[in-house]
Write a structure and sequence with these properties.
alpha+beta, Translation Initiation Factor IF3, four-stranded mixed beta sheet, 3 helices, 4 strands, about 40% helix
Amino acid sequence: MQQLTVKQRQYLKGLAHDLQPVVIIGNNGLTESVVKEIDLNLKAHELIKVRVLGDEREAREAMIEDICNATNASFVQHIGKLIVLYRVSEKAKISLAKL
């Protein structure tokens, strides 16, 4: 998992602003198939939004850590029920080198 600087995080937040959630975590929580779907979307897009259905903030925060550990993704932002994740792909589309 790559540690992001404040400037990198701000830049990624700006890029993620117009994105729609590509994965929705339902009532069953963080299952193996959900983790695989997140991993697949990170490979394809690098920067994704995930929507978590559920009202418990603590549960969502625990899911963030589990997702990041399972997918080697970097946490960018958590607003309400949306989580923004980033992971560099082999064919990097987003450059964070100069930030």
